[in-house]
Amino acid sequence: MNISYKSRYIGSSIMYLKIHHGEFSHVVAIADRTLIGRTLKEGMLQIEVSEYFYKGEIVTEADVVSVLKNTNNANMIGTKVVNCAIEHGFVKADNIIMIDGVPHAQIILI
């Protein structure tokens, strides 16, 4: 797989995962550790990688895969987490967007 952003954040091996529970559903938020607290901007797009939304438990790639297998709504930001989702077949590389040079992907299953 040749993804140009793959080596941008070498050393960002720690990911944070937080599950937001709603009355009828939940949202899984996963971010590379190095992005917490940053605001990314690209044209009209802007995303705040806030501690409130993304900073939950420190997880491994295996943890991420396990959670993604059992969710229908996920929001992912960062090279490590998006590569993990691509490599395990949760998203296709063609379906990610870049915001300020950082990959972002969402999973929404209806």
What this model shows, in words?
This protein has 110 residues and is an alpha+beta fold. The chain has a single domain (15-108), classed as uncharacterized conserved protein from methanopyrus kandleri domain like (uncharacterized conserved protein from methanopyrus kandleri fold like), CATH 3.30.1860.10. The protein is 19% helix and 36% strand. The strands form 2 sheets. A 6-stranded mixed beta sheet has the order 5-1-2-6-8-7. A two-stranded antiparallel sheet has the order 3-4. A hairpin with a 2-residue loop joins strand 7 and strand 8. The longest helix has 9 residues, at 79-87. It is globular. The chain starts with 14 loop residues before the first strand and ends with a strand.
Write the layout of secondary structure elements.
Layout lengths: L14 E7 L4 E7 L6 E4 L2 E4 L2 H4 L2 E3 L1 H8 L4 E5 L1 H9 L9 E3 L2 E7 L2
Parallel strand pairs: 2-6
Antiparallel strand pairs: 1-2, 1-5, 3-4, 6-8, 7-8
Q: CATH superfamily name?
A: uncharacterized conserved protein from methanopyrus kandleri domain like
- The termini sit apart by 28 Å
Which CATH-level-2 architecture? 2-Layer Sandwich
Overall mean confidence score, pLDDT: 89
Count of DSSP strands: 8
CATH class: Alpha Beta
- What is the count of helical runs? 3
Strand content: 35-45%
Structural class: alpha+beta
Q: Helical percent range?
A: 10-25%
